[in-house]
Amino acid sequence: MKKRIISLILCAAVIISACGCSADNSTMSADSSSSASAVSSAETASQDTSLDSGSSSDTSSDASDKTSSDGQNSSSADSSDKQDSSSADSSDKQNSSSNTSSETSKPSTSKQESSSSAVTASKPANSTVTATSKPTSATVADTTKKPTATTTSKKPAATTTTTTVKQTDDKPLSFSETYEAENGKLSNDMSVISGGNASGGKSVGKFENDRSYCQISITVPADAVYDIVIRSMGIGGSKENDIYTDGKKVGTFTSENNKFSDYTVSAVSLTKGDHNIRIIKSWGWIELDKITVKTGAKISDSTYNVTSSLVNRNATANTKKLYSFLKESYGKYVITGQQCDGGINGNEFKAIKNLTGDYPALLGLDMMDYTPSRTAFGASSSAVEKAIEFANKGGIVTLCWHWNAPTEYLNSTANSSDGWWGGFYTQSSKFDIAKVMNGQDAKGKKLLDRDIKEIAKQLKRLEKAGVPVIWRPLHEASGGWFWWGAKGSDAYKKLWKYLYNELTNTYGCNNLIWVYNGQSADWYPGDEYVDIVGEDIYPGNHVYDPQVSRFKQAINYGSKTKITALTENGCIFDIDSAVSINALWSWFMTWGGEFTVNGSNYSEKYTEKSIIKKMYASKYSLTLGSLPKIY
Q1: Considering only CA atoms, which of 246, 240, 329 is closest in space to residue 564?
Q2: Strand boundaries in 474-562, DSSP class E
Q3: How do residues 560-610 score in pLDDT, each as one tens digit?
Q4: CB neighbours of 70 closer than 8 A, spacing ≥ 6?
Q5: Does the pLDDT at position 64 exceed 90?
Q6: Contacts of residue 532, Cβ cutoff 8 Å, sequence gap at least 6
Q7: Plot region of 562 (φ>0 → left; ψ -120 to 50 → alpha; else → beta)
Q8: Which residue among 103, 476, 535, 594 is the active-site one?
Q9: What CA–CA distances, in Å, run from 506 to 127, 456, 457, 469, 511?
Q10: DSSP strand E in 103-194: where?
Q11: What backbone torsions phi and psi does residue 496 show, to the nearest 5 degrees?
Q12: What's the confidence (pLDDT) of residue 337?
């Protein structure tokens, strides 16, 4: 989670980089090298023309690009939390890597209030919640027409595009080939390591430098989807590093601490013939044993069969209708989303409308500036008003909460990233949630309850206005960079259950659909407290992979099938690629600021215009203009 665009970013970068915030939701990097070094590593990989056929411009590990971006508006609150959001222990990354440096910019309290006209795009005929069936006859490339309420629920068979390979069934061929790392091409700083439990008694390592790599040449028998299994071991902790095929980043993999283990990067599309796989340092400090390339598979249709009801049995009628719509559309469409403090009249929304002809269907807002320890310093918010305005135009609203620690626990009340406006970061306060939840800090508990009461008040305003909320509190906990995740999974799960009970049973907030976004199965609070699972992924610049490995990871957090969404992202994935392998996140939520705009204009820094235009035009996406009437 990272990168924001205002002048205070530079100041925050020094602070957060010093404390090791990483680019991936699972880590913090103490290595002083910045994102520039990661880019340099990728460029080195792509410039080796004797081996690579493509360029690699995105070597940062998932989410490393967002570390500074969240600190600006509500979209800018978690600058370091926009790091890929994988679930590794943040302390592990401090020992090994040169991930991008964190930059945090001050959240702005000024909101966009311009009076641009309401959405005029017509909605599908006979607009009902059941109007979400995926068309059967059109190919993926035919993206100009949205389905109407009369379409069927059958998925299209054998979809193809110019950017993805043809996949006619779940397992088009049977293939598996293993390649020992010691037989690959190594950068000059790498060496073969003998002994241990590696296959054949040898591995390679240790990926200590920014330009470290191991490259392996492979041959596949057909145009198809493949899984790449990386066997490796972390040195001094769990580590994350990047994998490229032909100069293009296709995923990030995890190496467990001091033991060889397998990590599968799923559903990589390869054409028949020769390819280069290159492992590039992100955090580094691993031993690489071998790589296996084998037959992959599309996501099974059964993944989208969600039969559970809302966890709150007293949910309002509109909340139930929204949840039913999400279930009906899941696996058929991807709901377009955008974080934007200004609401429908904000810069991000207007830029997208000007470019694509329509608005996102889902508006992301932040409850951050309702927190008492922020309002005490003059912060204010109009998020509730923006949410009501958007809902009245037929849109869907999701809220996160960058929850500032109480003022009494802040390390500083200065107007800086380590002061009050960065009070949600672990490094900015002494707030110990484990002690609070264990009854060892009565003062902290009282202040915690005060904050919950204030947020409940705002949520009840939305309920009174008939607005259901996709509610995403306590996000990215397993990364450790926020105080609610700083004391481990047990304390976090206690807090999640307590927050659920207080909002649901004490204050009667019955308009909430609860999204777990802790980024780890170990932190999952239980099926009875979660409606939807979300992942935050920031893979770098112009990385359009649908992130199938993370999707597969998230759908298995609980024992019941839950809707799974891309709750924060830097790049928008390629919709054709996602459809071709049946990997359809319920929605995506592009973060604001530099991830979407440069000032008031659309920015191609992370997602090129062709990709977002294709997404918004696709029959497999839902925009504000194509949403059916939900309630």
Answers
A1: 329
A2: 512-516, 532-537
A3: 999 999 999 999 999 999 999 999 999 999 999 999 999 999 999 999 999
A4: 1, 2, 4, 76, 77, 78, 79, 80, 81, 82, 104, 402, 591
A5: no
A6: 326, 470, 513, 514, 515, 516, 562, 563, 564, 565, 586
A7: beta
A8: 476
A9: 36, 10, 12, 18, 14
A10: 176-180, 185-186, 191-194
A11: -60, -50
A12: 98
Q: How many residues does the chain have?
A: 631
pLDDT tens column, 417-443: 778 989 999 999 999 999 999 999 999
Contacts of 449 (CB under 8 A, 6+ apart): 502
The encoded tokens of residue 452 equal: 């919950």
In sequence order, which ranges of 465-596 are alpha helices (DSSP H)?
489-501, 548-554, 575-580
pLDDT in tens, 510-544: 999 999 999 999 999 999 999 999 999 999 899 99
Distance between CA 544 and CA 83 in Å, rounded? 17
Residue 610 neighbours by CB under 8 Å, 6+ apart: none
Q: Looking at this protein, which amino acid is placed at residue 203?
A: S
The answer to whether residues 549 and 265 touch, using CB atoms and an 8 Å cutoff, is: yes
Whole-angstrom CA distances from 69 to 73, 342, 400, 502 are: 9, 16, 15, 31
Beta-strand runs (E) in 111-201? 176-180, 185-186, 191-194
Query: Which single residue is written with the structure tokens 């002061």?
Result: 419
476 catalytic? Reply is yes
Cα-based distances in Å from 418 to 1, 18, 103: 17, 11, 12
Options 180, 328, 348, 568, the catalytic residue: 568
